[in-house]
Amino acid sequence: MTTKVDPWADIQGKVDYDKLIKEFGTEKLDKHLIERLESDAKKKGMTLHHLIRRGIFFSHRDLKWILAEYDKGNKFFLYTGRGSSGEVHLGHIVPWMVTKWLQDVYGVELWFQITDDEKFLFKPELTLEESNRLAHENALDVLAVGFDPKRTKVFIDTEFAGTMYPIAIRIAKKLNFTTAKAVFGFTNEHNVGAIFYTTMQSVPCVLPSVIAGRNIPCLIPYAIDQDAHFRVTRDILPKLGYYKPAALHCRFLPPLTGPGKMSTTGSAKDSTIFMSDDPKTVRKKVMKYAFSGGKDTVEEHRKHGGDTTVDMAFQWLTYFEPDDEKLLDIKRRYEAGDLLSGELKQILVDTIVPILLEHQKRRGEARKAIGDCLIKDNKWNG
Ligand code: TYM
Questions:
Q1: Is residue 374 part of a domain?
Q2: CATH number of the CATH domain containing 45
Q3: Which of 157, 252, 256, 302 could form a disulfide with 289 if both were Cys (CB 3.0 to 4.6 A apart)?
Q4: How far is the CA of 92 from the centre of ligand 1 (A)?
Q5: Nearest CA, atom 18, ligand 1
Q6: Which of 354, 353, 364 is nearest to 140 (CA)?
Q7: How far does CA 74 lie from the centroid of its chain?
Q8: Could you tell me the residue range of the domain that residue 72 belongs to?
Q9: Given the CA of residue 79, which atom of ligand 1 is nearest to it?
């Protein structure tokens, strides 16, 4: 149990995001940049994404630069990813929702990496066959988010390694073990594959540039746990003649049980809501596990109202209810004691169930489209 934030930690407890900005050396996503994103969205007849509006996307690296390049006609591509260790859950979808929004606003390509190698190397019990099977399953969830299939390339590391490896070793040659230990906390007990892995996560930052034979800016949306990889990448790529990748960081969707990062491992795993969960299961998990900011008795609650700052049903609504007025009304009614904790939980269920059902429908349809998006060694002509 830790509030230390790195790619493989079980993150529990309150995360101090302002502190992470300082610690990781990122920049706060400020008013000017948010206004810029909003004005670009308006040009496409879209509105600012609520996850940006509400500060759930809170930090960045070089976003200003990448938008300035875009203005000059130097279009960027988007890159993000998934480690295939299990089923996709609602937390994973958070960065992907904004990735889709960015793809729609800027009309750009998305390169989506699925790291079956990473999860095989870091999970002692996971076989490579299982991680690869999960990678193919997860790829369907990726497409179900609604990315434009014509502008989206999905690749699974072990099936695209022939293309990736020559770039990975160039990066690996610039990364010594002292740095890797300092950044990722590796010890002598880690296998050497785990130590090498970060170079595979760096590769997609430059892969489209290598293929095109010219430098193309890269923007990576992700939750802040993945940042260590890109701190290393940003140090190395200029030494190889490439741009540093830009980044956009989001907070974690907390577990229903309280603050931290929702995850399929760790102590709060039973309360994790998966994209495949049916309405009955969702209701059961929310009613059983969602930490309540309500008072102990109905009388007390009616008199003093609930605390939305700790109430997980309310916190989750800030991620999944896009309508600001609706959210504010729920907040007022809960804090005034008009809305009881059970009723607030039911509102959350009624909000996320349609999202899951829509995802499940699109996931079924994705089986047809996946062939066009999944790129592999030898079967790919650029
Ligand atoms: P993975 O599979 O752990 O997570 C996939 C994406 O989901 C984010 N994430 C969350 N976001 C909000 N709330 C949560 N509770 C939550 N849990 C996970 C992660 O930050 C990530 O963006 N090594 C990566 C795979 C990867 C990747 C990338 C991720 C390869 N290339 C480029 C981001 C960008 C991994 O295991 O992600």
A1: no
A2: 3.40.50.620
A3: 256
A4: 6
A5: 92
A6: 364
A7: 25
A8: 17-257
A9: 32
CA–CA distance, 200 with 81 (Å, rounded to integer) = 12
Q: How many angstroms separate the alpha carbon of residue 221 from the centre of ligand 1?
A: 9
Per-residue pLDDT of the chain (382 residues; tens, 9 = 90+): 557 888 888 888 889 999 999 999 999 999 999 999 999 999 999 999 999 999 999 999 999 999 999 999 999 999 999 999 999 999 999 999 999 999 999 999 999 999 999 999 999 999 999 999 999 999 999 999 999 999 999 999 999 999 999 999 999 999 999 999 999 999 999 999 999 999 999 999 999 999 999 999 999 999 999 999 999 999 999 999 999 999 999 999 999 999 889 988 776 778 999 999 999 999 999 999 999 999 999 999 999 999 999 999 999 999 999 999 999 999 999 999 999 999 999 999 999 999 999 999 999 999 999 999 999 997 655 4
Place of tokens 């969702």: 282
Answer yes or no: do 219 and 358 share one domain: no
Distance (angstroms) between ligand 1 centre and the Cα of 94 equals: 10
**Is residue 276 situated within a structural domain?**
yes
Report the amino acid identity of residue 32.
H
Of 257, 291, 311, the domain-final residue: 257
Q: Does the CA dihedral 92-93-97-100 come out positive or negative?
A: positive
Q: Whose CA is nearest to atom 14 of ligand 1?
A: 91
In this structure, what DSSP letter does residue 270 have? G
Residues 274 and 307 in one domain: yes
Q: Return the residue whose CA atom lies nearest to atom 34 of ligand 1.
A: 80
Structural domain ending residue among the three candidates 225, 257, 289? 257
Domain count, the chain: 2
DSSP β-bridge partners for residue 59:
28, 249
Length of the chain: 382
Instruction: Say if residue 124 is in the same domain as residue 225.
Output: yes
User: What lines the ligand 1 site, CB under 6 Å?
Assistant: 7, 80-83, 91-92, 94-95, 113, 115, 118, 201, 220, 222-223, 225-226, 250, 252-253, 261-262
